[in-house]
Protein backbone atom coordinates (compact mmCIF):
# COMPACT_ATOMS: atom_id res chain seq x y z
CA UNK A 1 0.00 0.00 0.00
CA UNK A 2 2.73 2.46 0.83
CA UNK A 3 4.24 2.82 -2.65
CA UNK A 4 0.80 3.40 -4.14
CA UNK A 5 -0.03 5.90 -1.40
CA UNK A 6 3.22 7.85 -1.79
CA UNK A 7 3.02 7.96 -5.59
CA UNK A 8 -0.61 9.05 -5.36
CA UNK A 9 -0.03 11.97 -3.00
CA UNK A 10 2.97 13.09 -5.07
CA UNK A 11 0.85 13.13 -8.24
CA UNK A 12 -1.95 15.04 -6.53
CA UNK A 13 0.40 17.68 -5.05
CA UNK A 14 1.83 18.50 -8.47
CA UNK A 15 -1.57 19.60 -9.79
CA UNK A 16 -2.49 23.27 -9.33
CA UNK A 17 -5.84 23.97 -7.68
CA UNK A 18 -6.21 27.08 -5.64
CA UNK A 19 -9.62 27.89 -4.21
CA UNK A 20 -12.30 28.33 -6.92
CA UNK A 21 -9.98 26.75 -9.53
CA UNK A 22 -10.46 23.10 -8.63
CA UNK A 23 -11.39 21.73 -12.06
CA UNK A 24 -8.00 20.13 -12.82
CA UNK A 25 -7.57 18.52 -9.43
CA UNK A 26 -11.17 17.29 -9.44
CA UNK A 27 -10.56 15.66 -12.82
CA UNK A 28 -7.38 14.06 -11.47
CA UNK A 29 -9.32 12.64 -8.52
CA UNK A 30 -11.99 11.29 -10.88
CA UNK A 31 -9.26 9.62 -12.97
CA UNK A 32 -7.89 7.94 -9.82
CA UNK A 33 -11.37 6.80 -8.80
CA UNK A 34 -12.08 5.29 -12.22
CA UNK A 35 -8.68 3.60 -12.26
CA UNK A 36 -9.43 1.88 -8.94
CA UNK A 37 -12.74 0.60 -10.27
CA UNK A 38 -15.25 3.10 -8.90
CA UNK A 39 -18.16 3.12 -11.37
CA UNK A 40 -18.72 6.44 -13.19
CA UNK A 41 -22.32 6.52 -11.97
CA UNK A 42 -21.14 6.64 -8.34
CA UNK A 43 -19.26 9.92 -8.96
CA UNK A 44 -21.01 13.30 -9.04
CA UNK A 45 -20.50 16.99 -8.37
CA UNK A 46 -22.88 19.07 -6.31
CA UNK A 47 -23.73 22.68 -7.16
CA UNK A 48 -22.08 24.36 -4.16
CA UNK A 49 -19.89 26.56 -6.40
CA UNK A 50 -22.99 28.32 -7.74
CA UNK A 51 -23.97 29.38 -4.22
CA UNK A 52 -20.60 30.54 -2.85
CA UNK A 53 -19.72 34.26 -2.70
CA UNK A 54 -16.91 33.72 -5.24
CA UNK A 55 -18.17 31.39 -7.95
CA UNK A 56 -15.83 28.47 -8.56
CA UNK A 57 -15.18 26.17 -11.52
CA UNK A 58 -16.72 23.09 -9.91
CA UNK A 59 -18.72 22.00 -6.87
CA UNK A 60 -17.85 19.47 -4.20
CA UNK A 61 -16.98 16.05 -5.64
CA UNK A 62 -19.06 13.28 -4.09
CA UNK A 63 -18.57 9.52 -4.40
CA UNK A 64 -21.30 7.26 -3.10
CA UNK A 65 -20.61 3.54 -2.85
CA UNK A 66 -23.21 0.97 -1.82
CA UNK A 67 -22.32 -1.47 0.93
CA UNK A 68 -23.44 -4.18 3.29
CA UNK A 69 -27.13 -3.90 4.21
CA UNK A 70 -27.92 -2.80 7.73
CA UNK A 71 -24.56 -1.12 8.31
CA UNK A 72 -24.30 2.64 8.84
CA UNK A 73 -22.88 4.77 6.03
CA UNK A 74 -19.50 6.33 6.81
CA UNK A 75 -18.24 9.46 5.09
CA UNK A 76 -14.56 10.22 4.47
CA UNK A 77 -13.67 13.76 3.45
CA UNK A 78 -10.90 16.23 2.64
CA UNK A 79 -10.61 19.50 0.76
CA UNK A 80 -9.21 19.69 -2.78
CA UNK A 81 -8.22 23.36 -2.90
CA UNK A 82 -4.88 24.73 -1.76
CA UNK A 83 -3.69 28.20 -0.80
CA UNK A 84 -2.26 30.14 -3.80
CA UNK A 85 1.39 29.74 -2.76
CA UNK A 86 1.16 26.02 -3.66
CA UNK A 87 0.40 26.60 -7.36
CA UNK A 88 3.33 25.38 -9.44
CA UNK A 89 4.65 22.98 -6.80
CA UNK A 90 7.07 20.25 -7.84
CA UNK A 91 6.97 17.70 -5.01
CA UNK A 92 10.27 16.01 -4.19
CA UNK A 93 11.13 13.28 -1.72
CA UNK A 94 13.84 14.15 0.79
CA UNK A 95 14.46 11.33 3.25
CA UNK A 96 11.38 10.86 5.39
CA UNK A 97 9.52 13.86 4.07
CA UNK A 98 8.22 15.28 0.82
CA UNK A 99 9.05 18.91 0.14
CA UNK A 100 8.57 21.37 -2.69
CA UNK A 101 11.60 21.39 -5.01
CA UNK A 102 11.15 25.12 -5.62
CA UNK A 103 11.78 27.42 -2.66
CA UNK A 104 9.10 29.82 -3.89
CA UNK A 105 6.12 27.48 -3.66
CA UNK A 106 4.36 25.63 -0.89
CA UNK A 107 3.75 21.90 -1.16
CA UNK A 108 -0.04 21.65 -1.03
CA UNK A 109 0.01 18.61 1.24
CA UNK A 110 -2.73 20.66 2.94
CA UNK A 111 -4.89 19.11 1.83
CA UNK A 112 -3.86 16.83 -1.02
CA UNK A 113 -2.54 14.39 1.59
CA UNK A 114 -6.07 14.29 2.99
CA UNK A 115 -7.51 13.68 -0.48
CA UNK A 116 -4.96 10.90 -1.01
CA UNK A 117 -5.70 9.27 2.38
CA UNK A 118 -9.40 9.12 1.50
CA UNK A 119 -8.58 7.61 -1.92
CA UNK A 120 -6.27 5.00 -0.40
CA UNK A 121 -9.01 3.92 2.01
CA UNK A 122 -11.57 3.78 -0.82
CA UNK A 123 -9.26 1.65 -2.95
CA UNK A 124 -9.19 -0.93 -0.18
CA UNK A 125 -12.98 -1.34 -0.30
CA UNK A 126 -14.13 -0.74 -3.88
CA UNK A 127 -16.07 -3.79 -5.07
CA UNK A 128 -15.64 -5.67 -1.76
CA UNK A 129 -18.83 -7.46 -0.71
CA UNK A 130 -18.20 -6.96 3.01
CA UNK A 131 -17.60 -3.20 2.82
CA UNK A 132 -20.01 -0.83 4.56
CA UNK A 133 -21.73 1.91 2.55
CA UNK A 134 -19.11 4.64 2.02
CA UNK A 135 -19.41 8.23 0.90
CA UNK A 136 -16.30 10.20 -0.01
CA UNK A 137 -16.58 13.95 -0.25
CA UNK A 138 -13.89 16.23 -1.66
CA UNK A 139 -14.63 19.83 -0.78
CA UNK A 140 -13.90 22.95 -2.78
CA UNK A 141 -13.10 26.44 -1.40
CA UNK A 142 -12.06 25.42 2.12
CA UNK A 143 -9.17 27.86 2.27
CA UNK A 144 -11.34 30.92 1.63
CA UNK A 145 -13.65 30.41 4.60
CA UNK A 146 -15.11 26.88 4.38
CA UNK A 147 -17.35 27.90 1.47
CA UNK A 148 -17.63 24.45 -0.14
CA UNK A 149 -18.72 22.62 3.01
CA UNK A 150 -21.04 25.49 3.92
CA UNK A 151 -22.86 25.31 0.57
CA UNK A 152 -22.71 21.48 0.42
CA UNK A 153 -25.72 19.69 -1.13
CA UNK A 154 -26.24 17.50 1.93
CA UNK A 155 -29.01 15.47 0.24
CA UNK A 156 -26.46 14.05 -2.23
CA UNK A 157 -24.43 12.30 0.50
CA UNK A 158 -26.72 9.30 1.09
CA UNK A 159 -27.32 10.14 4.76
CA UNK A 160 -23.98 9.25 6.39
CA UNK A 161 -24.11 8.43 10.11
CA UNK A 162 -20.76 10.10 10.77
CA UNK A 163 -17.64 11.36 9.04
CA UNK A 164 -13.88 11.22 9.30
CA UNK A 165 -12.37 14.38 7.83
CA UNK A 166 -8.69 14.74 6.95
CA UNK A 167 -6.95 18.10 7.03
CA UNK A 168 -3.57 19.55 8.05
CA UNK A 169 -1.59 18.41 11.10
CA UNK A 170 -0.99 15.39 13.29
CA UNK A 171 -2.76 12.09 12.42
CA UNK A 172 -2.96 11.01 16.06
CA UNK A 173 -4.80 14.07 17.27
CA UNK A 174 -8.57 14.03 16.99
CA UNK A 175 -10.06 17.47 16.57
CA UNK A 176 -13.44 17.17 18.27
CA UNK A 177 -14.46 20.79 18.34
CA UNK A 178 -13.79 24.16 16.83
CA UNK A 179 -14.62 27.76 17.55
CA UNK A 180 -17.43 29.61 15.92
CA UNK A 181 -16.65 32.84 14.15
CA UNK A 182 -18.64 35.94 13.29
CA UNK A 183 -17.43 38.58 10.85
CA UNK A 184 -18.56 42.17 11.07
CA UNK A 185 -18.46 45.05 8.62
CA UNK A 186 -19.06 48.46 10.20
CA UNK A 187 -19.60 51.61 8.22
CA UNK A 188 -19.65 55.01 9.92
CA UNK A 189 -21.22 57.74 7.82
CA UNK A 190 -20.26 61.19 9.02
CA UNK A 191 -20.99 64.65 7.71
CA UNK A 192 -18.21 66.33 5.73
CA UNK A 193 -17.25 69.95 6.37
CA UNK A 194 -14.19 72.18 5.95
CA UNK A 195 -12.05 71.34 8.94
CA UNK A 196 -10.51 74.83 9.11
CA UNK A 197 -13.44 77.08 8.25
CA UNK A 198 -16.49 75.33 9.74
CA UNK A 199 -15.72 72.02 11.46
CA UNK A 200 -18.82 72.43 13.65
CA UNK A 201 -20.95 71.86 10.58
CA UNK A 202 -19.52 68.38 10.22
CA UNK A 203 -19.66 65.15 12.22
CA UNK A 204 -16.48 63.10 12.06
CA UNK A 205 -16.69 59.41 11.40
CA UNK A 206 -13.12 59.09 12.67
CA UNK A 207 -14.03 60.65 16.03
CA UNK A 208 -16.86 58.16 16.37
CA UNK A 209 -14.58 55.23 15.51
CA UNK A 210 -12.08 56.38 18.14
CA UNK A 211 -14.73 56.65 20.85
CA UNK A 212 -16.09 53.19 20.01
CA UNK A 213 -12.70 51.49 20.05
CA UNK A 214 -11.74 53.19 23.32
CA UNK A 215 -15.01 52.03 24.90
CA UNK A 216 -14.41 48.45 23.73
CA UNK A 217 -10.89 48.57 25.13
CA UNK A 218 -12.16 49.87 28.46
CA UNK A 219 -14.85 47.19 28.59
CA UNK A 220 -12.23 44.48 27.87
CA UNK A 221 -14.02 43.37 24.71
CA UNK A 222 -10.94 43.43 22.46
CA UNK A 223 -8.29 40.75 21.99
CA UNK A 224 -8.53 37.83 24.42
CA UNK A 225 -11.96 38.11 26.02
CA UNK A 226 -12.83 36.36 29.26
CA UNK A 227 -16.23 36.27 30.97
CA UNK A 228 -16.43 33.93 33.94
CA UNK A 229 -15.28 30.53 32.69
CA UNK A 230 -15.92 31.38 29.04
CA UNK A 231 -13.23 32.62 26.70
CA UNK A 232 -13.26 34.12 23.25
CA UNK A 233 -11.37 36.52 21.04
CA UNK A 234 -12.13 39.61 19.04
CA UNK A 235 -10.21 41.78 16.64
CA UNK A 236 -10.68 44.98 14.75
CA UNK A 237 -8.54 44.01 11.81
CA UNK A 238 -9.14 46.72 9.21
CA UNK A 239 -9.89 50.42 9.50
CA UNK A 240 -10.05 52.74 6.52
CA UNK A 241 -11.46 56.21 6.13
CA UNK A 242 -11.08 59.94 5.72
CA UNK A 243 -9.70 61.80 2.74
CA UNK A 244 -7.64 64.85 3.80
CA UNK A 245 -6.54 66.76 6.90
CA UNK A 246 -8.78 69.68 5.99
CA UNK A 247 -11.96 67.63 5.64
CA UNK A 248 -14.09 66.37 8.53
CA UNK A 249 -14.16 62.66 7.74
CA UNK A 250 -17.48 61.51 6.39
CA UNK A 251 -16.65 57.84 6.03
CA UNK A 252 -14.91 55.08 7.97
CA UNK A 253 -15.08 51.38 7.18
CA UNK A 254 -14.09 48.80 9.73
CA UNK A 255 -13.82 45.02 9.57
CA UNK A 256 -13.92 43.06 12.82
CA UNK A 257 -14.42 39.52 14.03
CA UNK A 258 -15.49 37.66 17.16
CA UNK A 259 -14.76 34.02 17.99
CA UNK A 260 -15.53 31.63 20.82
CA UNK A 261 -16.13 27.94 21.45
CA UNK A 262 -19.25 29.19 23.21
CA UNK A 263 -21.77 30.72 20.84
CA UNK A 264 -23.36 32.79 23.65
CA UNK A 265 -20.07 34.55 24.37
CA UNK A 266 -19.32 34.95 20.66
CA UNK A 267 -22.68 36.65 20.19
CA UNK A 268 -22.12 38.78 23.31
CA UNK A 269 -18.79 40.00 21.92
CA UNK A 270 -20.31 40.87 18.56
CA UNK A 271 -23.24 42.58 20.31
CA UNK A 272 -20.79 44.65 22.39
CA UNK A 273 -18.91 45.73 19.25
CA UNK A 274 -22.12 46.68 17.48
CA UNK A 275 -23.39 48.64 20.50
CA UNK A 276 -20.09 50.47 20.97
CA UNK A 277 -20.18 51.78 17.40
CA UNK A 278 -23.88 52.71 17.59
CA UNK A 279 -23.39 54.56 20.90
CA UNK A 280 -20.24 56.32 19.69
CA UNK A 281 -21.86 57.41 16.43
CA UNK A 282 -24.77 58.98 18.32
CA UNK A 283 -22.32 61.03 20.42
CA UNK A 284 -20.70 62.78 17.47
CA UNK A 285 -23.15 65.38 16.21
CA UNK A 286 -22.96 68.40 13.88
CA UNK A 287 -24.19 71.78 15.18
CA UNK A 288 -27.40 71.29 13.25
CA UNK A 289 -28.05 68.10 15.21
CA UNK A 290 -27.09 65.44 12.68
CA UNK A 291 -25.14 62.54 14.19
CA UNK A 292 -22.72 60.12 12.61
CA UNK A 293 -24.66 57.03 11.51
CA UNK A 294 -23.33 53.51 12.08
CA UNK A 295 -24.34 50.65 9.78
CA UNK A 296 -23.31 47.27 11.11
CA UNK A 297 -23.60 44.04 9.15
CA UNK A 298 -22.83 40.70 10.74
CA UNK A 299 -22.35 37.24 9.30
CA UNK A 300 -21.80 34.03 11.25
CA UNK A 301 -18.97 32.33 9.34
CA UNK A 302 -19.42 29.05 11.13
CA UNK A 303 -20.87 27.81 14.39
CA UNK A 304 -18.80 26.26 17.15
CA UNK A 305 -19.19 22.56 17.92
CA UNK A 306 -17.93 19.95 20.34
CA UNK A 307 -18.28 16.17 19.92
CA UNK A 308 -18.50 13.92 22.97
CA UNK A 309 -15.80 11.32 23.64
CA UNK A 310 -18.52 8.63 23.54
CA UNK A 311 -19.57 9.47 19.97
CA UNK A 312 -19.14 6.29 17.82
CA UNK A 313 -16.84 7.96 15.28
CA UNK A 314 -14.63 9.24 18.12
CA UNK A 315 -14.43 5.76 19.66
CA UNK A 316 -13.59 4.09 16.33
CA UNK A 317 -10.91 6.65 15.49
CA UNK A 318 -9.29 6.26 18.91
CA UNK A 319 -9.33 2.49 18.51
CA UNK A 320 -7.64 2.68 15.08
CA UNK A 321 -4.87 4.91 16.43
CA UNK A 322 -4.34 2.63 19.42
CA UNK A 323 -4.12 -0.42 17.13
CA UNK A 324 -1.32 1.34 15.23
CA UNK A 325 0.59 1.51 18.50
CA UNK A 326 0.15 5.24 18.93
CA UNK A 327 -1.55 7.24 21.62
CA UNK A 328 -4.66 9.13 20.55
CA UNK A 329 -5.00 12.70 21.74
CA UNK A 330 -7.97 14.95 21.37
CA UNK A 331 -8.49 18.66 21.32
CA UNK A 332 -10.32 21.61 19.88
CA UNK A 333 -9.12 24.19 17.39
CA UNK A 334 -9.50 27.94 17.39
CA UNK A 335 -9.72 27.99 13.61
CA UNK A 336 -12.66 26.98 11.45
CA UNK A 337 -12.61 23.61 9.69
CA UNK A 338 -14.99 21.89 7.28
CA UNK A 339 -16.22 19.84 10.25
CA UNK A 340 -17.91 22.97 11.62
CA UNK A 341 -20.30 22.82 8.69
CA UNK A 342 -20.59 19.02 8.60
CA UNK A 343 -21.67 19.00 12.25
CA UNK A 344 -24.09 21.84 11.49
CA UNK A 345 -25.44 19.70 8.61
CA UNK A 346 -26.09 16.93 11.17
CA UNK A 347 -23.03 14.71 10.56
CA UNK A 348 -20.83 14.11 13.64
CA UNK A 349 -17.29 14.58 12.32
CA UNK A 350 -13.82 13.87 13.67
CA UNK A 351 -10.92 15.63 11.96
CA UNK A 352 -7.39 14.22 11.77
CA UNK A 353 -4.20 15.57 10.18
CA UNK A 354 -2.11 13.61 7.67
CA UNK A 355 1.41 14.67 8.62
CA UNK A 356 1.48 18.10 7.00
CA UNK A 357 3.83 20.58 8.64
CA UNK A 358 4.24 24.35 8.21
CA UNK A 359 1.17 24.50 5.99
CA UNK A 360 0.43 27.66 3.99
CA UNK A 361 4.16 28.48 3.75
CA UNK A 362 6.98 27.74 1.29
CA UNK A 363 8.48 25.49 4.03
CA UNK A 364 5.55 23.08 4.00
CA UNK A 365 6.52 19.41 4.34
CA UNK A 366 4.71 16.09 4.38
CA UNK A 367 5.95 13.56 6.91
CA UNK A 368 5.66 10.24 5.08
CA UNK A 369 5.22 8.02 8.16
CA UNK A 370 2.45 10.25 9.50
CA UNK A 371 0.76 10.37 6.10
CA UNK A 372 0.81 6.56 5.83
CA UNK A 373 -0.60 6.37 9.35
CA UNK A 374 -3.51 8.57 8.27
CA UNK A 375 -4.16 6.21 5.32
CA UNK A 376 -4.15 3.24 7.74
CA UNK A 377 -6.47 4.94 10.21
CA UNK A 378 -8.99 5.74 7.46
CA UNK A 379 -8.85 2.14 6.26
CA UNK A 380 -9.21 0.67 9.76
CA UNK A 381 -12.12 2.87 10.76
CA UNK A 382 -14.04 1.76 7.66
CA UNK A 383 -13.37 -1.87 8.61
CA UNK A 384 -14.95 -1.33 12.04
CA UNK A 385 -18.11 0.04 10.42
CA UNK A 386 -18.38 -3.08 8.27
CA UNK A 387 -18.67 -5.33 11.31
ZN1 LIG B 1 -6.55 22.55 5.01
Question: Any overview of this molecule?
Answer:
By secondary structure, the protein is of the alpha+beta class. The protein has two domains: 261 residues, Zn peptidases (Aminopeptidase); 123 residues, Alpha-Beta Plaits (2-Layer Sandwich), CATH 3.30.70.360. It has nine helices and 18 strands. A six-stranded mixed sheet has the order 1-2-6-3-7-16, sandwiched between helices. Strands 10-11-12-9-13 form a five-stranded antiparallel sheet. It has a four-stranded antiparallel sheet with strand order 4-5-18-17. Strand 4 and strand 5 form a beta hairpin. Helix 1 packs across helix 3, helix 3 packs across helix 9 and helix 5 crosses helix 6. The chain is elongated and about 85 Å long. Bound molecules: zinc ion. The site of zinc ion has 6 residues, from helix 3.
The percentage helix is 25-40%
The name of the CATH architecture of the largest domain is 3-Layer(aba) Sandwich
| Series of secondary-structure elements, N-terminal to C-terminal | HHEEEEEHEHEEEHEEEHEEHEHEEEH
Distance between the termini: 22 Å
CATH class of the largest domain: Alpha Beta
Look at the helices and sheets and give the structural class.
alpha+beta
| Overall number of strands | 18
- Uncertain runs are none
Topology:
Blueprint lengths: L1 H12 L9 H13 L7 E3 L15 E5 L8 E6 L11 E4 L2 E4 L8 H15 L10 E6 L7 H4 L11 E5 L6 E6 L1 E10 L15 H14 L4 E5 L2 E12 L9 E10 L2 H21 L9 E10 L2 E2 L5 H12 L5 E5 L4 H7 L4 E4 L3 E2 L7 E3 H19 L1
Parallel strand pairs: 3-6, 3-7, 7-16, 8-15
Antiparallel strand pairs: 1-2, 2-6, 4-5, 5-18, 8-14, 9-12, 9-13, 10-11, 11-12, 17-18
Helix pairs in contact: 1-3, 3-9, 5-6, 7-9
The site of zinc ion (ZN) has 6 residues, from α3.
Amino acid sequence: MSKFAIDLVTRLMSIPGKSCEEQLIAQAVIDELLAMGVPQKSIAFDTAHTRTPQRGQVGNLIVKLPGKKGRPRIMLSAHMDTVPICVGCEPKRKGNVIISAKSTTGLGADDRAGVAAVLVALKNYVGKADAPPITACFFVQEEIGLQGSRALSVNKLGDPAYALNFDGGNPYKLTLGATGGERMAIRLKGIPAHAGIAPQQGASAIHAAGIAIAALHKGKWLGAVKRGKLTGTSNIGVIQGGSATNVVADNVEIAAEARSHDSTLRTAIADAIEKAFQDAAAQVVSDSGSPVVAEVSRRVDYDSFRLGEDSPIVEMTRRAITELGAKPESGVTNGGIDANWLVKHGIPTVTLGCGQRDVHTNKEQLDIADYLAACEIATKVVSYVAR
